[in-house]
Amino acid sequence: AMSYYPKEGNPLWEQYSTAAIIHTINEYSKYSFDYPYPVAISVNGPVGGMEYPMISFNGPRPTKDKKTGEITYSKRTKYGLIGVIIHEVGHNYFPMIVNSDERQWTWMDEGINTFLESLAERAWEADYPMGRGDARFITNYMASRNQVPIMTNAESTLQRGNNAYAKPAAGLNILRETILGRDLFDHAFKTYAQRWKFKRPTPADFFRTMEDASGTDLDWFWRGWFYTTDAVDISIDGITEYGVSSKDPEKEKAWKKAQHDAEPISITEQRDQGSKRYVDRKPELKDFYNEHDDYTVTNKDRNTYAEQTEKLEDWEKKLLAEGKHLYLVDFSNHGGMVMPLILEIQLASGKKYIERVPAEVWRYSPKKITKLLVTDEPMTSLVQDPYWETADIDQSNNAWPRKATQSRLELFKSERGGGDMMKDFRTPLKSKDAPKDAAKDKQPPAPVPAAK
Ligand SMILES: [Zn+2]
């Protein structure tokens, strides 16, 4: 690994360029094959970033203050430099060695490379500032109107950065974290890299290798994510709770009474409450039916229950005794793209757990489904995709009960752009006293004329 740069590139280049090349080769080799070339070179030049076999040109440099000569660089410049070196050196693997045709299918090198770049950045340091790779970064694009599918010829793509870099990278990340799991994905991906190195794969070769090496039917995923502009927007529409009827009249009649009592009292009844009725004034008019409501358990009820219970099989008795809670949850697919369900279930005791349901749950009915959940205690809340791992474009319909959206009303004018924090940090602190003292002798300031 070698770096060529002028002294104006320092201190960034001496500290990071060669280290970033070494890191790239270590990380990319883990997911594909050993780097087969004798050298890897990063050159500081006038272009932002451009790849060639064994050599790449990368732009970012620190800035020099014209007055003081002080050299500083922004966070964006630092991580931009490391990121672009990872990306351009990474292109040695895709498409220099796994030699897909970038003039036909930009995503096969840029998308796959952006995906591996994001893995390498995560391996560089925790909380590496990234804008591509994670599912949550792609939701704005997925919700936007002016799109063409990833599987569009490179000459005709719109929004190249999102279409050919960010969306395939996010898709591969979803495939790895949510659909296949890391072990299965990494094995299938490595198989693709090794099977197609020094050859010229087409999209179908990638799709087929990922499927046969993982032993998983992924047609639905390629179709939705690569061949359409459908987004993910799964909504929890409603929940119906079912209890298993025990047939025990003591329990069932009490349950029915509780249901009835939970109904709101009519407005007329509320206003009449406390008023003396005719039978209150003439108690001799009351009889049996004034003592018992519809929920009184009779001996006939008890006898019937005893006879029925005798006839039950053992497993039926057990199910009755367990007291499980059954919920039928209605989901609808507003975005078009199906995805696994990742359900965060919270119970009355506060216990929380995740239940994962494969995307095949949508196979007979891709627009609306009802899923049965069985819990040990009453369920108090349900959240679909709690970790934002499926690029769901509308989180507001993902929770039951619904959650209020948090936002802020901004009263201050916003500043544009991320600055150079290193420079801002070294800026001398303005003393509050100085201007105050100076202002003491002055008249109150005249009203400032509006800016033009
Ligand atoms: Zn690239």
TrEMBL record:
<feature type="domain" description="Peptidase M1 membrane alanine aminopeptidase">
    <location>
        <begin position="18"/>
        <end position="225"/>
    </location>
</feature>
<dbReference type="GO" id="GO:0042277">
    <property type="term" value="F:peptide binding"/>
</dbReference>
<dbReference type="GO" id="GO:0070006">
    <property type="term" value="F:metalloaminopeptidase activity"/>
</dbReference>
<keyword id="KW-0031">Aminopeptidase</keyword>
<dbReference type="GO" id="GO:0005737">
    <property type="term" value="C:cytoplasm"/>
</dbReference>
<dbReference type="GO" id="GO:0008270">
    <property type="term" value="F:zinc ion binding"/>
</dbReference>
<dbReference type="GO" id="GO:0043171">
    <property type="term" value="P:peptide catabolic process"/>
</dbReference>
<dbReference type="GO" id="GO:0016020">
    <property type="term" value="C:membrane"/>
</dbReference>
<protein>
    <submittedName>
        <fullName>Aminopeptidase</fullName>
    </submittedName>
</protein>
<feature type="region of interest" description="Disordered">
    <location>
        <begin position="257"/>
        <end position="276"/>
    </location>
</feature>
<keyword id="KW-0645">Protease</keyword>
<dbReference type="InterPro" id="IPR027268">
    <property type="entry name" value="Peptidase_M4/M1_CTD_sf"/>
</dbReference>
<feature type="region of interest" description="Disordered">
    <location>
        <begin position="412"/>
        <end position="452"/>
    </location>
</feature>
<dbReference type="Pfam" id="PF01433">
    <property type="entry name" value="Peptidase_M1"/>
</dbReference>
<feature type="compositionally biased region" description="Basic and acidic residues">
    <location>
        <begin position="412"/>
        <end position="443"/>
    </location>
</feature>
<dbReference type="GO" id="GO:0005615">
    <property type="term" value="C:extracellular space"/>
</dbReference>
<dbReference type="InterPro" id="IPR050344">
    <property type="entry name" value="Peptidase_M1_aminopeptidases"/>
</dbReference>
<keyword id="KW-0378">Hydrolase</keyword>
<dbReference type="InterPro" id="IPR014782">
    <property type="entry name" value="Peptidase_M1_dom"/>
</dbReference>
